[in-house]
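Q:
Just now I want nothing more than another pair of eyes on a protein record. Here is the record:
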Amino acid sequence: MRAIDLRSDTVTKPTPEMRRAMYEAEVGDDVYGEDPTINRLEERAAELLGKEAALFVPSGTMGNQVAVLTHTRRGQEVIVEAESHVYLYEVGGIAALSSCQVKTIPGVRGAMDPAAVEAAIRADNVHFPRTGLVCVENTHNRSGGCVLPPENVAAVAAVAHRHGIPVHMDGARIFNAAVALGRPAAELVAPVDSVMFCLSKGLAAPVGSLLVGSREFIAEARRYRKLLGGGMRQAGVLAAAGLVALEMMIDRLADDHANARRLAEGIAGIPGLRVDLETVQTNMVVVEIVDERWTAGAFVQALRTQGVLCNDTGPRSVRLVTHKDVTAADVELALDAIARTVKAGP
């Protein structure tokens, strides 16, 4: 039986077009700037995001950490949303690599109040660290893939820029946000100074992310990528899949969103489970388990025996993520398995 893998969109397999492009890729030494496929990918990424330049990195975490290193100086403070990936899931990289401390602000579905951001910016006082960077995340993972309202991003960036502070966006799934809103990704990231986005999630490339920003910023970021071991020589074989992803995989994200909506609506009708349908805006569904017989961990294990893979995100919550390797038929099979599992009990 083929498992229906709803753990994450990171589990996507490369398409036949990607595999062919990888096989045929023209390559060179990227550290010398001589890999033509890498160069084309970086140019295309900058163009799509409306920025001057881009840098190919192995992962989204490296992209975010390179951005923090490039924007900040040792001993500064970075303002982040309290449930953000850069704070929770990157191994303390802001402290370990940039020697900066973090100031967290609780958000509403990932969106920080601009007034709270302004209040968190440090005054010029010898006792305080200087605020060096503000980070936002779009879509917001811990909020179940919610899209940041464009006006919120613009307002937060305006506050930061008024104080001379740059803004970085963890846009790992920025194209999900763009498709959900029906607006160009470049428009959504226009207010911020740098953006990281992933090729290896919903866009289904096997490896890689892009960091985009000004030419000056990317030139400096390239040095930090090298520091972290991200200079990958003949990496055009990876970039080739990324080019296919950008040309062929963005518009189809709408299918993932439709499948997530169907999944959420089906689960909402199952006694013992609850879904806030207002948060199902892209390709994620967060399920609250209200049936007191179940813990999230036990529920995940029980579903695994039914061929449905997912992850728990708390003692009584589970996250399901749709992607290009999950079909509409798979969603119906998953709903049947979930209903059977809840009814049977642990």
Q: What stands out?
A: Residues 11 and 118 are 38 Å apart (CA to CA).
